[in-house]
Write a structure and sequence with these properties.
Helix 9 packs across helix 12. This protein has 341 residues and is α/β, with parallel strands linked by helices. The chain has 15 helices and twelve strands. The protein has a single domain, classed as TIM Barrel (Alpha-Beta Barrel). The chain has an eight-stranded parallel beta barrel with strand order 2-3-4-5-8-9-10-12, surrounded by nine helices. The chain has a three-stranded antiparallel sheet with strand order 1-6-7, with helices on one face. The model has no long low-confidence stretch (mean pLDDT 93).
Amino acid sequence: MLCWLTSGMPTYTPPPWTSRFGVTLEGRESLAEIAVLARAAEAGGAGTFWVASHLFLRDPITMALVVLGATTRLRVALMAMSPYAMHPVHLAMAAATLAELHPGRVVLCLGAGAPADREAAGIAAPQPAKALREALLLCRGLLAGEAVKLDGDVFRTPGQRSLVGGAAAVPVVLAATRPAMLRVAGRHADGVLLSGGSAPAYIRQCLDIVGEAAAGRSVASISLVYAAPVASAPGRAAAIAGVRRRLALVLRGAHHAPNLAAAGTVLDQARLMALTQANDWNAALELITPQVVTNHAAAGEPAELAEAFTTLHAAGLDEVALAALTGPADILATLEAGTRA
């Protein structure tokens, strides 16, 4: 593969942009609800609002614009935009246009996309490590104000045009789990976003791979963390039900076997996969024991949340991106617990 820019590789390095906490959004909420959630995140001290790109849900670019318009300082990360579903040139265009309206408040996160979503849309995803590497190079070059010439295995651009608005100070992050993708993040991205359900020991393993590939280059470290505040013991089971369901969906994947091993988690992944595919959620959730939740999420009363967050930051995370929170009250309660960490 041959890749170069009109004036060499981009030298843009984003200023420090991560915060100790972010909040994530899936896109199932109405646009009016999204504005309310964004204001709660900002009021609670979150620095980034991670807007998910799930096919068949709400458009992430529109959601990002709603969040930016509803807040005054909150950054918005387009997460994790797939170059298979939208060409990298268009991804860079979207990020740069949002940044023109809200300078310094936009982050672009790339990822291969959820396999089930891609399958439902009939989108193939060949050579993911190469495709994401090429997409990263193309987006970073365009956002640095360059005309990018790229003769890749997946993407090709002749280098005839740059973005009309010129350079845009937009960090480009890669969502990564497997070693090959972690190395791509280390070599080329401004940050790495680790999978939800990642245990602290596994986070350290992943960041070691990123750091080795980065060879001294600064790469921000972020991880999705399924979280649930629990006000009192009697309501604990109901409060963490959503976290358990998320963990069931994520940890069933074979690629999470190293994550489970790093945490010392005993979980029958094959049975969990079969039960979730059969929609037998009662049986599936029985496999997500309290110990699994403790190992792979942050759920509990304020002191328990604070302890979990302290451990996650100690594992090397710059930002904990809180996922699975169900409303403004949950966002505020969880962020308040984070101030104790």
